[in-house]
Design a protein that fits this description.
single chain; about 140 residues; alpha+beta; Jelly Rolls; three-stranded antiparallel beta sheet; 3 helices; elongated
């Protein structure tokens, strides 16, 4: 059994949905040493999230942002947690809906993503800053 882990900070991004698959692979190149296993990507924040979805057409990422802004609007007067701005509580809710980690099978030294799948960093804050991740891969 091989186990590899890397903590990484990704550069600041604007609000929206951003493909980070290549950055994950670059951060943990030892994935290529695993014939069969699992890779987990975990974000260490409560106002950004991770998901896997369409990696080819950028309009999918635009539509994700539009959808989540409709479902979890800003400036709702019922939010009590608003110390960090009108995007803060909605960011926490969006993060809770999407989740803080993704788990991907490793097959023959590669992430076993589907043809049109990629890993998204979902930045829910207007000024989220650098985001920290822990990437862990294990297997044979």
């Amino acid at each position: 059994m091989k186990i590899f882990q890397q903590a990484v900070s990704l550069r600041k991004r604007r609000r929206g949905f951003h493909l980070i698959t290549e950055e994950v692979l670059n951060a943990l190149p030892q994935i290529s040493e695993i014939k069969m296993g699992i890779c987990q990507v975990f974000i260490q924040h409560t106002s950004a999230s991770l998901t896997i979805n369409e990696n080819a057409d950028p309009t999918v990422r635009v539509d994700f942002e539009m959808f989540f802004n409709k479902v979890v609007p800003e400036n709702d007067p019922d939010y009590e947690h608003d110390y960090e701005g009108s995007d803060d509580m909605p960011a926490h809710l969006k993060s809770a809906l999407l989740g803080s980690s993704v788990t991907i099978p490793i097959r023959n030294g590669r992430l076993a993503l589907g043809t049109w799948q990629g890993i998204y960093l979902c930045e829910h804050r207007n000024h989220g800053g650098q985001r920290k991740f822990v990437i862990t891969a294990w297997g044979e």
